[in-house]
Write a structure and sequence with these properties.
Blueprint: H1 3-15, E1 23-26, H2 30-46, E2 51-54, H3 57-65, E3 69-70, E4 79-84, E5 88-89, E6 95-96, H4 103-112, E7 113-121, E8 134-138, H5 143-152, E9 157-159, E10 175-179, H6 187-195, E11 200-203, E12 205-206, E13 212-217, E14 220-225
Parallel strand pairs: 1-2, 1-4, 2-3, 4-7, 7-13
Antiparallel strand pairs: 5-6, 6-12, 8-10, 8-11, 9-10, 13-14
Helix pairs in contact: 1-2
This protein binds ribulose-5-phosphate (5RP).
Length: about 230
């Protein structure tokens, strides 16, 4: 079974957690693409009244195109449930996100949400975070200074570039600096360090956030409860 089939399986299962009347946070990425399709099918078949808050223009456009009502994050007083993908999840349910350069908006939506579910294929489950380069979003002013500072700390920063070699920019017009840190033994300490760096708008460590993980495996879906 290929990776996309496993992503779709997890997305379809997670769409079952959506309830009538909910305000839903919708993440970004290829797994979320399947999720939005699955939610739209339920909205149509069951006449669900839900509204979505998106984390990227990609998701926003897809959801609107499929008939899901979308509202801005500043137009809601709460979000009931956010469903998003992830790049890595460790055994303590800590995660790395930002492979799609949307981690700042994703974290904002996740932190506004009463519950968070991540949907992944089984390859995203790891013992220790860090094989996936850790994304950070850096403001353009002084970005080279930020890179030097992180390099001096041994964090092996690398600017993310597109196929044409241009710097990738985020929704906010900032750059993405991926950190090749290797195994992250103490994610909270690293998050604390990155939080304190002027010039870094946000990083992709999502700690103590997720409540449930839905995993697509060749033997079916698994729902893992994070105990928070
Ligand atoms: O964090 C993200 C985007 O910023 C995505 O959720 C993450 O990269 C997973 O993507 P995919 O579902 O395509 O594997």
């Amino acid at each position: 079974m290929d990776q996309n089939a496993l992503k779709k399986m997890a997305a379809d299962r997670a769409a079952e957690f959506v309830e009538d009347g909910m305000t839903l946070g919708l993440g970004t990425g290829s797994t979320v693409h399947y999720l939005v399709e699955a939610i739209a099918r339920r909205v149509q078949a069951e006449h669900l009244h839900i509204q979505g808050v998106s984390t990227s223009s990609r998701t926003e456009d897809q959801a609107r195109g499929l008939g899901i009502t979308m509202v801005g994050i500043d137009d809601v007083d709460h979000i009931d449930l956010t469903i998003d993908g992830a790049d890595e999840i460790d055994q303590h349910f800590q995660g790395i996100k930002g492979g799609g350069a949307a981690h700042t908006l994703e974290k904002m939506v996740a932190l506004t949400s009463a519950q968070n579910i991540w949907i992944v294929d089984q390859s995203k489950l790891v013992d220790t975070l860090g094989a996936f380069p850790l994304p950070t979003e850096v403001i353009p002013f002084g970005h080279t200074q930020v890179e030097r500072r992180l390099a001096a700390e041994g964090l092996n920063p690398e600017w993310r570039r597109d196929d044409q070699g241009q710097l990738v920019t985020t929704h906010n017009g900032n750059y993405v600096l991926d950190l090749h840190v290797g195994k992250i033994a103490h994610p909270h300490l690293l998050a604390q360090f990155l939080d304190a760096q002027t010039g870094i708008l946000e990083h992709g460590l999502f700690l103590d956030i997720v409540n449930k993980v839905v995993v697509g495996t060749p033997d079916g879906t698994q729902v893992l409860n994070a105990g928070r």
